[in-house]
Amino acid sequence: MSSQDPLDRFVIGYPKLAAQMEILPELAIFRRFGALNAQNLLYMQAELTYLEEELREQQLADKIDGSGKRSKFALDWYWLRESEKNGTGEQLELVMKIREKMKEYNDALVQQAKILKYPKPSTWDLHHIQNYLQSAAMGDLALNGSDAEIWGSACDHKSYKPDLVTLCPRAKKDAFSAWAAESTITNLFRCGCARHMKPSRVHGVVGYEDSTIYRITYWITSILASLIPIASIAVLYRVQSMTARLGIIAGFNVLVSICLMGLANAKRAEMFAITAA
What we know:
By secondary structure, the protein is an all-alpha fold. Among the domains are: 34-116; 171-277. The chain is 58% helix and 2% strand. It has 9 helices and 2 strands; from the N terminus they run αβααααβαααα. Strands 1-2 form a two-stranded antiparallel ribbon. It is flat. The two termini are 52 Å apart.
């Protein structure tokens, strides 16, 4: 298969891998470091717990102060703010320390919540980056640090880290479209159809757009959606037995449910509504 590398000007390693992610955003696959993020949150949570206990103890100590000055801290922010000038700013110091740590903790908590919602990479894109890292364009051992094993390898596709996420997931398609796109494109390359195509100026290799496969599966799905009701009517018209008709209706209901799951990616509520209708 003929190819031209549009990334020759990039140094092999991180620069070239980053450039490949730029032209193929679906390859922006990274670790979310779930254990480290959780451990960091646990440490900050523990630190805040100790600071909270210290603050409560200090508040109680200030409340029972004999002079009466410290007892005002819980009633008026002004006196708490001015306590530092009077040499009684222990409680204020704890409040400011907690405020700073709470901001850091809340930011980390919100970021972790967002990261946990990032989807996992598709098998297709994961295999693509595994093959690219060991391709001639990247050379032998393009990455040789500890992070070289993050995405796995072309020899062992399942050796990747379990906490990978993608920043640009592919559009979620139904099971039939996803299967058709992957198997069709793979078979086109196996049968040698790519020999007559020119390499892409952007990607540097011969490729097929999966959007073309999706258009074909869309037409197939549309035709089936029209034919199934017609077929059910035709079959029921020819069958006279009521028992047989009930069995045929049940069979077509099951067929419609299967088509909705595999061809339309329908939700459960939609499946119940359509099959009932």
